[in-house]
Amino acid sequence: AGLIGGCGPSTPTSAGPVAGLGGEQPAAAQRLGFPVFATKNTTRVGGADPVADAAAVSQAVYPATSEANRPAVVALSDAGDWRTALAASVLMAAPLRAPLLFSQGHGLPAATADALRALRPVGSRAAGGARVISVGGAPHPGGLPYGAIGGADAYDRARAIDAYMARVRGGASEAVIVVSAEEPAYAMPAAGWAAKSGDPILFVHRDSIPVATRTALAAHQQPKIYVLGPGTVITNRVVAELRRMGTVHRIRGADPVSNAVAFARFIDGPFGWGAVDPGHGLVFASSRRPLDAAAAAPLSASGSYGPLLVLDAVAPLSPALDKYLLDIEPGYARDPVRGVYNHGWLIGDAQAIPLVAQGRIDTDLEIVPIASKSSPTPPRP
Predict the structure, then answer these.
(1) Residue 372 confidence (pLDDT)
(2) What are the C-alpha distances in Å from 281 to residues 41, 199, 244, 356?
(3) What pLDDT is attached to residue 373?
C-alpha cells in the first residue's frame, strides 16, 4: 500500500531508498509494473481498495523528498462514508492543498499510517497550524497538531466543510456543485473539480433538499448552482427549488459514464473543465468504487490537471467514453515532438479497471498523424 505500482516493499519515503529489481530476476519487467501499472500513456494507482489508492495518490502528488514537496496539511475522512469523503475533496483546493487519506472507524489502516509518516505534513498557517484535518469524527493521529470539521450527518458535514473552506479562503465561493446523495456514480466527477477549483460539493435527494444543504446555499447568497446528473437522479422539482436560491445549470448524461463525459466537456465562464481538445490529464475510476473519486481528487488538481471520468462494466470501454477519448485524441501534422499529449491516471487494481480497458485507454490517448485522426465531435452547448 502507498506505492503507485505496488511492485516493491511498502516502505515510507522517509525510510530512504528502496532497492529495485535486477535484470537477472525472473519476469522483472512485469514485476516492475509493465503493462499492469504503466503503459506509454497511462499510469495506474493499483490499490486493492480506496484506502490504499488514497495513500498512493497522496505520495504521488507529494513525494516528500524535501520540505518543498511535502504537504502543509493532510485531511482524514472515514472510508465508511462516501458522501463526506467526496465533500472533503475540496480541501485539496487552495489555500490548504490537503490530500485526502482514509480512516476506518476509530483506527488508521496501515496504508494511511504509512502515508502519514512518509508525508510528514509541515503545518498549515491557513488551518491554524494544523498538520491534520479530521473530518466527520475521523481519528486524530497522536503527536500531530490537528483541526476538526464536524457535523451531525453527511449533509451537515458537507455544509461544515464548505463553511470551513469559506473561512480559510476569506469568503464563500461563487459556484456550488449539487450532486445526488443516493447515486454515487453520478456524483463522483464532482470530486476532481472541487479539488481543483475550491467549489464545494453539496447533496440533495432525488426529490428533496436536506435542511443542511439549504443552509449552506443560503450562506453563498445566490450562487451559481451546477446540478450534476439527469432528471432521473435529481428531479426537475429539486431544480425548481434550487432556482429560488441561485442561478441553476444542469449538467447531465443518461448514465454515469455519459454524465462524467458531459461534465468533462462542460464550461461556463470560469466553471468547468471545457476539455474538448487534446492536451489534458485525465483520471479514470470505476463507477463501483465511489471512494476512489475522492482518493484521486488531488490528481485532478495538480500535475497535468484534468477531469475524472467514470468507467462501467462494459469491456473494454463504453461507446460514450471511447468516443469522447477519440474526440480529444492528439494529432500531429509533421512531428509528434511538437504535439500536445494526453495522459491517463487509472485508479484501482485490475478488479476495478480491467487490463483490457487500460489497453484501450492507452490506444485512445496516443498521439497520431492528423490524417488518421477521427473527425472530432462538436462539444455540447
Answers:
(1) 63
(2) 10, 20, 36, 20
(3) 58
Q: What would the pLDDT profile of 161-212 be if each residue is shown by its tens digit?
A: 999 999 999 999 999 999 999 999 999 999 999 999 999 999 999 999 999 9
C-alpha to C-alpha distance for 325 and 149, rounded to whole angstroms: 38
Going by pLDDT thresholds of 50, 70 and 90, the confidence category of residue 8 is very low
Cα radius of gyration (the chain):
20
CA angle centred on 347, ends 343 and 350, rounded to 5°? 110
Which grid cell sits at 135? 473530518
The per-residue pLDDT for 7 is: 38
Enumerate the β-bridge partners of residue 175. 224
Angle at alpha carbon of residue 366, lines to 194 and 277, rounded to 5°: 50
- The CA distance from 27 to 35, in Å, is 12
Predicted confidence at residue 314, as pLDDT, reads 87
Given a contact cutoff of 8 angstroms between Cβ atoms, the answer to whether 140 and 24 are in contact is: no
Chain-centroid distance of CA 81 in Å reads 16
Residues whose CB is less than 8 angstroms from the CB of residue 130 and which lie 6 or more positions away in sequence, other chains included: 73, 123, 124, 145, 146, 147
Q: What are the respective helix, strand and coil percentages of the chain, to the nearest 5?
A: 35, 20, 45
What value, to the nearest 5°, has the Cα angle with vertex 273 and ends 269 and 278?
120
pLDDT at 26: 84
Neighbours of 5 (CB within 10 A): 17
Tell me: the pLDDT tens digits for 139-148?
Answer: 988 889 999 9
**pTM exceeds 0.90:** yes
> Which residues, listed in sequence order, are joined to residue 74 by a DSSP beta bridge?
132
**pLDDT reading at 58 higher than 60:** yes
Q: How far apart are alpha carbons 214 and 236 in whole angstroms?
A: 17
Distances, alpha carbon 150 to alpha carbons 79, 213, 297, in Å: 16, 15, 21
Backbone angles phi, psi at 372, to 5 degrees: -105, 0
Tell me which residue has cell 498549515: 124
d(CA 8, CA 312): 30
Distance from C-alpha of 96 to C-alpha of 290, rounded to nearest angstrom: 23
Cα angle at 200 between 250 and 114, to 5 degrees?
130
